[in-house]
Amino acid sequence: MKRASSSPSTDPSLADLSPGSEVLVLRRDDLEAIIAQARAEYPNEACGLLGGRGGRVERVYPTRNALNSPVRYRVAEEDLLAALLDMEARGWGPDPLGIYHSHPHGPETPSATDVAESFYPDSIYLIVSHVARERPVIRAFRIVEGQVREIMVQIVPV
Ligand SMILES: [Zn+2]
Fold it and tell me: In the predicted model, what is the mean pLDDT of the chain?
């Protein structure tokens, strides 16, 4: 990959990232599955849960968006319960490692609604945006009491 000749990004949302910051590890096949789901449900938002431990995603749980909306999502209740039960059976949890949804056209960051409706401070919120692009944008956040902090996503081979 060519290195940009301009100065490094000064995106303020990345300002608090530093060595030792939290990292979410996601396998490439799981990432591709999430992107495929987001494209299949386009133009509506897609959503699902991430199971695993230690910041490493071990299983992706696609769920239905109960709102069938291009601007909102709510994980369908029965899908949520089924995923949480499976995670519990695997010794993960009690909260999901992550919750993902798509922003079909962006933004890449949590919306005001996402922040207001983030009920899992122990979960990482993964957002897949610009899903129609060749390479959608994947960013992850922790949302605690209205405060949003970005988390690095490390994509690893299968
Ligand atoms: Zn959102």
Answer: 89
Mean pLDDT over residues 132-153, rounded? 94
5 Cα to the center of ligand 1, angstroms: 33
Q: What is the 3-state secondary structure (H, E, C) of the chain?
A: CCCCCCCCCCCHHHCCCCCCCCEEEEEHHHHHHHHHHHHHCCCCCCEEEEEEECCEEEEEEEECECCCCCCCCCECHHHHHHHHHHHHHCCCCCCCCEEEEEEECECCCCCHHHHHCCCCCCCEEEEEECCCCCCCEEEEEEEECCEEEEEEEEEECC
CATH topology of domain 20-156: Cytidine Deaminase; domain 2 (3.40.140)
Q: What is the pLDDT of residues 95-136, one digit of tens each?
A: 999 999 999 999 999 999 999 999 999 999 999 999 999 999
| Distance from the alpha carbon of residue 53 to the mean position of ligand 1, in angstroms | 24
**110 Cα: distance to centroid of ligand 1 (angstroms):** 5
Could you list which residues have their CB under 5 Å from ion ligand 1?
A: 111, 114
Instruction: Parse the chain into domains and list their residue ranges.
Output: 20-156
